[in-house]
TrEMBL record:
It comes from the Bacteria. The chain holds residues 349 to 625 of 625 of the full protein. It comes from Thalassolituus oleivorans MIL-1. This is cyclic-guanylate-specific phosphodiesterase. Residues 24-277 form the EAL domain.
Length: 277
């Protein structure tokens, strides 16, 4: 039925389509300008261990305050940055800036174990490891402070180049986590051979994690599997006490979400979490 409707009315979508194309192109230009004008911002969201009030890990999240349209979600502009190729430059800017922030915090007395940075699949080409190494080297940044978040589908893709780059970085001491875990199609046995140390349970499973839901069973299975493979687990999207209690009970190592803290600018993060002042 839907198909029929779609076919009969397809002409109606024409103007819509070209309008979208137009706005897509102008947004792509804006994206390019923003990169040149240094308009992008980073925010940081803490991750907490059970019963600890100081965060030890943090995830870096990219923000684009568009001059006319206001804040645009990364869900909207990252895909555009990917298809336009801008993600290469943008991704390296994010990485360098996040590492610089981590070092600035350290200088000011805020010591964290690790900073995580999201990496798009497109970024991992033949020179990725080298580009990362250059940044770490430039900044004199300990590779063990860095964790790169990649998606499940990328990690499982089996693309030789990707695996090679990941192994190169792993050998330098950079760690990898699988973001939004549980939404892809990984075979559990395959995880074992992947060079990752952290699984991030997707927030869709955390949302309805009350005791007898199927999401509870999925989260439980992920945590149990991770434990038996010696991996850590981060739950993302924790918004309330019930979710926290449940995840504690299941033995989840790290918790992240609005319940503990929204993503904050570097200065806000320092003010809120620096206990040495
Ligand atoms: P993600 O890496 O899975 O990040 C988690 C998202 O959940 C973030 O959205 C975060 O702000 C949001 N979040 C945190 N706590 C809660 C909570 O308690 N409840 C709910 N409902 N949401 C929560 P954000 O910042 O809009 O980013 C969306 C996605 O965009 C990210 O998902 C990531 O895939 C991508 N992204 C963000 N920054 C970058 C980047 O620098 N590079 C790349 N390649 N992708 C990025
Ligand atoms: Mg992430
Ligand atoms: Mg995620
Ligand atoms: Mg997500």
């Amino acid at each position: 039925k839907a198909k029929e409707l779609g076919r009969n009315r397809s002409w109606m979508y024409q103007p819509e389509l070209s309008r979208n194309m137009h706005s897509r192109m102008s947004l792509e230009k804006d994206l390019r300008d923003a990169l040149v004008q240094n308009d992008f911002r980073l925010v940081y969201q803490p991750q907490f261990r059970q019963n600890e009030s100081n965060p030890l890990r943090v995830e870096t999240l990219l923000r684009w305050p568009h001059p006319l349209r206001g804040l645009i979600s990364p869900h909207e502009f990252i895909p555009l940055a990917e298809t336009s190729g801008l993600i290469m430059e943008l991704g390296l800017w994010v990485l360098r800036s996040a590492c610089e922030q981590f070092l600035a915090w350290r200088d000011q007395g805020l010591t964290l174990e690790k900073i995580a940075v999201n990496v798009s699949a497109i970024q991992i080409n033949g020179s990725f490891a080298e580009s990362v190494a250059k940044i770490l080297d430039d900044l004199n940044f300990n590779p063990q402070w860095l964790e790169l978040e990649v998606t499940e589908s990328l990690m499982m893709s089996g693309i030789t180049e990707v695996t090679q780059q990941i192994h190169l970085l792993r050998n330098m001491g950079v760690e990898f986590s699988i973001d939004d875990f549980g939404t892809g199609y990984s075979s559990l046995s395959k995880i074992k051979s992947m060079p990752v140390s952290v699984l991030k349970i997707d927030q869709s499973f955390v949302r309805d994690i009350s005791d007898e839901s199927s999401d509870y069973e999925i989260a439980r299975a992920i945590i149990m599997m991770a434990k038996s493979l010696g991996l850590s687990v981060v739950a993302e999207g924790v918004e309330n006490q019930i979710q926290e209690d449940t995840l504690h009970r299941l033995g989840c190592d790290w918790l992240q979400g609005y319940f503990y803290g929204n993503p904050l600018s570097g200065e806000e993060f320092l003010t809120k979490y620096n206990t040495n002042q």
